[in-house]
Structures
1.
Amino acid sequence: MNWSRKHLLDIQSLSAEEIQLVLDTAKAFKAVGERAIKKVPALRGKTVVNLFVEPSTRTRISFELAAHRLTADVVNFSVESSSLKKGETLRDTARNLEALNADMIVIRHSAAGAPHFLSRVVNVSVINAGDGSHEHPTQALLDAFTIREKKGRIEGLNVTILGDILFSRVARSNIWALLKLGARVTLCGPSTLVPRTFEQMGCTVTHNVDRAIEDADIINLLRIQHERQRKTMFPNIGEYTNLYSLNKTRFARIKPDALIMHPGPINRGVEIDSEIADCGRSVILDQVTNGLAVRMAVLFLLNGGKGPGELGV
Amino acid sequence: MPNTVKKTTSRVLMTSAELRRVLARLAHEIAERNGDSSGVVLIGIQRRGPYLAQRLGQALEALWGHAVPIGTLDVGMHRDDLDRRLAPEIFTTHIPFDVNQKTVVLVDDVLFSGRTTRAALDSLNDFGRPQRVQLAVLIDRGHRELPIQPDFVGREVDTTKSERIEVRLREESGEDLVSLEVL
């Protein structure tokens, strides 16, 4: 199959086949990153704008490097240095970027749905790099890529996502992607951060961490999103760490081939023991490497699809 | 929309036995051209080039008495029409040897506009600087749009632009058959 979408706004609307296509394409781009010359001319002459209305370092750098490795020109646009601070609307900012003939806008925004809105008001490919607590599609794609690479499959695996689910766009995108690809997803954390409503998506919800991790093939740890919590969701960090962190005692009881994932940034000693984060079964840095490959694949796929769609040789 | 059914007629260009003979001849021609076999490597262009490169490699190994390094190359990231079409599916690029100072024989099934070959030369550049590059194709169907010509040709076939060459190889289709599809 071929990719025919103009935007990557969320995982929810993608089919399993489309997700697999991104992962397959990313595999080829990962190989490019391992060569002496890590660059291909696929997006030569294209302009990618990183429109980060909410601060981000790792995702922005990953997208920036991905665009560079595809030979695109990159403009970084952060809220601190932009007219958004002076009262310009998102729509006007985007239309200005469009007027400069940008080809793709990578947007991160604290409001859920901002990328969807943008895709309706500008004639430019829009990529969601995280919108509020809604979705973070490329994170889910890179997580799925990493699982598939390490385990050889996703279907039938038990994936446990542990931590702040309620405020996590990473969790939502991961849940959609993993369920579409046939994994079983268990969510665990304090009941204030892991409400039962998530069962409606098709997940298992538990507040018992030992039960959540005992059968897990993958344990994906999420950071507490202090910046999104409007009120205190649990008594204190010490209690959270006691009840829910992946410490050495719990680590000793998980499956011997279970992998530890974390989208970063890590709070060492809070959601994960520092030594476990660095151990051989932690694939946290593989996720970073794979994130670059997945973002190259997404940029590459979205660049197509503008023509009549013929596939002549 | 009305469903228009187009009649396709098909003409066999190469049977399995003919394909075998053509590949044997191509291997002999490659051997004849390259007196010093030590620096020769084969790189098959995705999607069917790698199968043909494997078969040529076996034939050359029999002629030369030593294994010939074989790689695969996908040109999808180097095409010149990427923003005019749906993004192409990307297949494996695997070149498990150094191409510097080598004689690289690019292997493809059908030579048409020459644009795939151009993209392959561009892509190959990222892996090093071969001493020379030669091009072996099973079918040359004409209609070149770039100044590119093959060194080794299985068969030249007169075609019109709307016709299609269908190459079926046993590795993926279970049978060897080359045919001309007239729409």
2.
Amino acid sequence: MGQGKGITQDMDLIIKIKNITFKNPIWVASGTFGCGEEFQDFVDLEKVGAIVTKTVTARAREGNPPPRIVETASGLLNSIGLENKGIDFFLKEQYPFLKKIKTRKVVSVSASSVKEFEKCIEKIYEKEDPDAVELNLSCPNVKHSGTKYNLLAQDAKATAKVVRAAKKKTKKLLIVKLTPNVTDIAGIAIAAEASGADAVALVNTYPGMAIDAEAMKPVLGNVVGGLSGPAIKPMALKAVRDVYKNVKIPVIGMGGIMTGIDVAEFMLAGARAVQLGTTNLVDPSSYERILGEFKAYLKRKKIKKAASLVGKLG
Amino acid sequence: MTKKCTKITRKTQKCTIISNKNIASDHFLLKIEAPFLAKNANPGQFVNVKVKDNVTDPLLRIPLGVHRVHSREIDLLYKVVGPGTELLSKRKKGEKLDVLGPLGNGFDLSSINDGRDKTAIIVAGGHGVAPLVALAEEMAGKKIKIEVFAGHSTKKHIVCVKEFKKLGAKVHIATDDGTQGHKGHVTGLLNKHIKSGDYDPGLATIYACGPRPMLSTLAKDVKRYKIPTQVSLDEYMACGIGACLGCAVRTRDGYKLICKDGPVFDAGEVEWGKVKG
């Protein structure tokens, strides 16, 4: 399905996860690309390796009180709070646009209980046929039940439980998105792998806060939020490396990617694919620039297969 | 298929800086060559400016209201308030600036265009005056009396009076310290005029931009007088295109986005009590 463009002039950008091929390893991250439609003026959407949708939940969520976003040194702190209109609205009003685009589609799903996760995934595949579901177990801006931790992905057992349940509801790819806010991220990834995850995606944002000293108040309406952008890249690279060394399933890496060289760094650390996040919000036309820079890097390094970069740290 | 049949209404563009001048204390007037924006921008719309390429700090673009529109250029008026605007003030003539726009929905001029209104009341607070000059320019050719109420902290900060006067507007000034015009808030000055029956509520519309507390006070005042009021809001913003859901404002219909649903809102639809004061 439109994957042929991946091979051009002796350069093979195609990557595979389980039995699914992707035309290139550069995807766009959940929550930073809407459902694609917002970016059609800026990006040829059919060039994108895969589009991961804004996270959808069983019922509509109104999100957190403003301010929801503030800039910090080379970083973006957000507390959107998973605002979305719910799975029914998503399937009726938002997915149809994405469906027409010839690229891989990944639907990001979050829920506060195992049952809700099951219901959401059931609904998606009753009506549509996305290539993958990404379980968002790690949004720092929502509370989950079923674990003593703030996030499901901070708890190996809770992660395993959700992944096992979700696996029964889909034959397509199941990707599990992890939080870096744990002592041992590899341990959580191992639990996800053992429970049937086809890939793990990391990292979600790091928890953080910003303070207005003049007003003597927190800047964000929600007080705390999640940090993304170049500020977190070194930590994200390490997390990808740690997980890559400990699981066999593919790792999808992200955290502050702004250039094609950053893409290469994540792949060298062990990522089979990467996701662009904050860069989309800085420049809506970043995608094609970064893809071009990545191709130029491969050409300069005389690397014919992008996939051969994965984990190749000297 | 991603090929579009519809016309592109917004894009990122590299604009040459024609001038970038300090026109009043901390206030800068930036003129850029931008034919696409000059052709497509409506009063009240904004652009999202990357103050410097290839730097990650500052990371995000900064949203600036379109201040004036010429045939091939546009002007942006900004106040240096942080590292982003500080860096922008250092940019020089001839350099390129990455500008995304035009974005958002501008002011609704239908009550002027259909001949209903006799008076347009423009209320500006501080550098919130920026988009209101483009608005007055748009009104200038129409059959409407323009009354401008501009509030500034002190005389040194007063900008744009000449521009408004050239467009035939009557300008009323308020300063917090009384160094020029009415001493006190611009909303108080406007109130005095409304109370003395200067404007017929059914034949006037208020167009306002300024700090949130000023707009909030204005919204409460005009509710009493039943004058339709449009306000242009500001908030921390990232993408500017409705994707990140960062610039939310609470309205009677739930959260709306300043970048996509605004920045201009009906004063009556905003829930002022629940916004940051």
